[in-house]
Each structure stands twice: as C-alpha cells, then as structure tokens.
Amino acid sequence: MSLKANIDVDKIKRERQTQVAIMKDKAVVRITNWSLPTIILLFAGLVGSIIYIEDAAMIAIIASATSSTSMALISILASFSGADKKDDPVMAIIKMQEKQNQSFLEILKTERSKSTEMVLDDKAIKVVDGDIKAVVSSDILYGSGDKLKK
Fold first, then answer.
1. d(C-alpha 92, C-alpha 135), whole Å
2. Phi-psi bin for 128: left (phi > 0), alpha (psi -120 to 50), beta?
3. 61-84 as b/e: b if 16+ CB within 10 A
4. Considering the chain, what is the average pLDDT of its residues?
5. Distance CA 132, CA 120 (A)
6. Tens of pLDDT, residues 3-12
7. Domain residue limits, the chain
8. For position 1, what pLDDT does the model report?
C-alpha cells in the first residue's frame, strides 16, 4: 500500500498556508509594537550624541544611521497599514499621453470628410478617409539636411 494514497495534499497545503498567514500576522504585530519606541529611542540617541559628542563627523554618521533606520521602519509601517500606493508620476504622464494619442487617432479616423496631411521635413503622415499612412524618407536620421559633423 502506497503512502501517497493516505496523504491529503490539499489539506496539508491549506494548513501550511494558514500557518504562514499566522506567522506573517504575528510578525506584523511585533514590528508594529516595537517600531515607534525604536524610532523614539533612535532620535533620543541622536540628540544625546549631538549634546555629548564634539566631533561633527561622528554626529553625521549617527544621524545617517538613525534616519535610514527610521525611514525603513516608517516604510514598513506604511506597507502594513495598507496605505494607498501612488503611481509613479512619470507613468501617470505616459498613460495620460497614451490616452490623448488614442483619442487623437480616433478623431482622425472618424473624420472622413477631410483628407489631412501633416508634414515634418522629409517625414510625412497622411490621413486619408480614416486610413493612416506613414511616409518616411529613406534617410530617417538626417532627413534631407547635411549629416552632423563632429
């Protein structure tokens, strides 16, 4: 008789997932409970070092260690609290530009009464009866002008 027949794999996976979730929750609670006192102690140590240490380089080292540790704890707390994650501003601009380009193309496609031609140097984009045709010169980089000199 094989051992695989007696083992319920799905039950074991569910139990492991439950145990992992419980361990994560315990870690969240412990970190949350100790992070604020830790930050307060770090800054108290920083103030104490400013008062008693005369070497500015040592104070700078202590300040950098204090600030980086505090910021790490604050970011961990923010991730635990489920704070809204903001999109990258550059990505927001790219998405907005993409929407504008799509709406522009839709306008060009739906307006069939006019033929539009937009020309920029040797590169031309023609919109005729809603079809987009791109015409590009053979020398895309330099156009008809002279090549750049070093």
1. 31
2. beta
3. ebeeebeeebeebeeebeeeeeee
4. 77
5. 16
6. 555 678 888 8
7. 9-81, 91-135
8. 45
